[in-house]
Amino acid sequence: MPKSRIFIISGPTGCGESTITKAIIEKIPNFTRLVTATSRPLRLNEKNGVDYFFFSKEKFENEIKKGNILEHGYISNRDTYYGTYGPYLKEKLKEGFNIIGNLEHKGTIFFKENYDAVTIFIKPDSMDNLKKRLLRREPDISQDELQKRLRNAEDEIKNEEKYYEYTVINAEGKLEEAIEEVKDIIEKNI
């Protein structure tokens, strides 16, 4: 029986990493999404244990102290933690699932170093197309927020892409091709 593998699919906001992850889970048996933890409040239509494990800030800090948060980041301007909840990960690996996580750079490095994760960076074919996607997804986005996200995307591509084993371009109108490319990478590595 093959061992469970962990795959990290990341990229700037709007690049399609969540959509690609969902498609992979539907197309390849025995895959599940890594449900991470956060200290931010539950939003409308979100479910605890499905979208995130929602903890208060105090509980999140206690889980860190107990060693149950394997890696984490803190967003100071939102006073919010995000991280990997160890008990969930251990349970899914014990059940024999392959795991796909959509993590930030710090989490990706952690999983490469500690779990020999296969890492895939998703990026747009152009910043103009990324801008169009962000506007389609959030038509009411402010110009300041849009420019901030585009700058963050450029920074991620410039500074973080090099840490990933694979890069897949999710070109405008070619999502299915990107999904198939990611599927091929994963099938070579399980």
Walk me through what this model shows.
By secondary structure, the chain is of the alpha/beta class. Helix content is 44%, strand content 22%. Helix 1 crosses helix 7 and helix 5 crosses helix 6 (143-159).
Radius of gyration: 17 Å
CATH architecture of the largest domain: 3-Layer(aba) Sandwich
CATH class of the largest domain: Alpha Beta
Uncertain segments are none
Major beta sheet, specifics? 5 strands, parallel
SSE arrangement:
Elements: E1 6-10, H1 17-27, E2 31-33, E3 37-38, E4 53-54, H2 57-66, E5 69-75, E6 80-85, H3 86-94, E7 98-101, H4 105-115, E8 118-124, H5 127-137, H6 143-159, E9 166-170, H7 175-188
Parallel strand pairs: 1-7, 1-8, 2-7, 3-4, 8-9
Antiparallel strand pairs: 3-6, 5-6
Could you name the key traits of this structure?
Rossmann fold, 5-stranded parallel beta sheet, 190 residues, 2 domains, 7 helices, 4-stranded mixed beta sheet, alpha/beta, Guanylate Kinase phosphate binding domain, 9 strands
Q: Could you give a quick summary of the protein structure above?
A:
The chain is α/β, with parallel strands linked by helices and 190 residues long. It has helices spanning 17-27, 57-66, 86-94, 105-115, 127-137, 143-159, 175-188, and strands at residues 6-10, 31-33, 37-38, 53-54, 69-75, 80-85, 98-101, 118-124, 166-170. The chain has 2 domains: 1-30 and 97-190, Rossmann fold; 35-95, Guanylate Kinase phosphate binding domain (2-Layer Sandwich), CATH 3.30.63.
